[in-house]
């Protein structure tokens, strides 16, 4: 008993160290997918030049905007629209660095398609030759899992489903600035997020599809990521997220100018039952 306990302890230390090393290697998390029937662009085309402009805009975004970006470059028929999102627990510096690397890698690793999406550990980037803002999208999508299996899959799964249901409700109700929730149930850690251009209904729909997919692709796995264009779901058997970054306070409003519209109050961060709620 004591012996196997000691063995398990060392084993879990080794596994944790391996997980940290893995987490540091950015490229292990990068995935990209394209939409085949939305057309191709060619080398040195106007579309490619517009894509390069999007990448440079994403590489030095001036405003944090809660880690969400809606960008556009060029004119129809070569107009590129892009949406980018960082996970709700990343600072502006971490977010900018993720967007720069992910957008650059997306053009290199999924080239020549007019419509493509990339996901990495802390952000997603997508572009298309059409209006994509506010629209629930199912394609392209993918899923990535840790090959280790839970030792008690049924119990693990019941807990996971309950946790993801709760987090999905919180994220979908998160308002127009950020739709993110993270929390744990014992040793199951999970985070879900929609791009905040989804309204509550479309965010809920996206996360519902995501949970369905999760119950197939991730079945029994100790960790998994379900990656869609408008929402992401992730769980692990250890903590992988930081405390959510509170949005910056708005500048003090000048007195005596009551006619001016006020900036919306920043969401308040409340920690309750290991969940982060945004109001
Ligand atoms: C688009 O580009 C891909 C990758 O280069 C190629 O496999 C595919 O045939 C192209 N599709 C069209 C319609 O040209
Ligand atoms: C695109 O431009 C580069 C640099 O100007 C050039 O080397 C390359 O041959 C061009 N490719 C095509 C397909 O025109
Ligand atoms: C974006 O990444 C490239 C390397 O891929 C680097 O040269 C460049 O300075 C980065 N841009 C910003 C704004 O960080
Ligand atoms: C998002 O970007 C598109 C393309 O530039 C623009 O038409 C739309 O107004 C933007 N939406 C918001 C809410 O900024
Ligand atoms: C939800 O997504 C659908 C499908 O893209 C879109 O037609 C609809 O306008 C979206 N709903 C809202 C309220 O934005
Ligand atoms: C995990 O379970 C799946 C399906 O039950 C099985 O195919 C796979 O070999 C298992 N993986 C490990 C590492 O045991
Ligand atoms: C989910 O929410 C319900 C209702 O608020 C609560 O009773 C339950 O403890 C929550 N479960 C988890 C895993 O957070």
UniProtKB/TrEMBL annotation:
Keywords, sorted A to Z: Kinase, Receptor, Repeat, Signal, Transferase
Molecular function as annotated in GO: kinase activity
Matches recorded under InterPro entries: GNK2, GNK2_sf
Any one Pfam family match given in the protein's UniProt record, by short name: Stress-antifung
Domain of life: Eukaryota
Position of the signal peptide: 1-23
Gnk2-homologous domain ranges (all copies): 29-132, 138-240
Protein name: Receptor protein kinase isoform 1
